Amino acid sequence: MSRRVATITLNPAYDLVGFTPEIERGEVNLVRTTGLHAAGKALMWRKC
User: Fold this and answer.
1) What DSSP character marks residue 21?
2) HEC string of 1-48?
3) Helices (H) then strands (E): counts for the chain
4) Least C-beta-crowded within 10 Å: which of 2, 11, 36, 41?
5) Mean pLDDT, rounded, for 23-28
6) What mean pLDDT value characterizes the chain?
7) Who contacts 18 (Cβ-Cβ below 8 Å, separation ≥6)?
8) Which neighbouring-strand residues pair with 9?
9) pTM listed for this prediction
10) Rounded mean pLDDT, 6-26
């Protein structure tokens, strides 16, 4: 028996990414640079 699964997800989203050179536990850590990237789209095809 062969089953097929196809999924297309068109759900636009943005990923906000921050960078800091080091993280200090128990302290306030500030982000030095940020980036905004398009994400949230998926395409999956599987044949069982």
Assistant:
1) S
2) CCCEEEEEEEEEEEEEEEECCCCCCCCCCCCCEEEEEEEEEEEEEEEC
3) 0, 2
4) 2
5) 94
6) 79
7) 31, 33, 34, 35
8) 42
9) 0.43
10) 83
**pLDDT at position 19 over 80:** yes
Taking phi over 0 as left and psi of -120 to 50 as alpha, with beta for the rest, 26 belongs to: left
Tokens of 7: 């999924």
Q: How far apart are CA 25 and CA 28, in angstroms?
A: 8
pLDDT for the residue numbered 32: 93
14 close to 37: Cβ distance less than 8 angstroms: yes
Which own/partner contact pairs does 16-24 have at CB distance under 8 Å and 24+ positions apart?
none
Other Cβ atoms less than 10 A from the Cβ of 47: the count is 8
pLDDT the model gives residue 38: 78
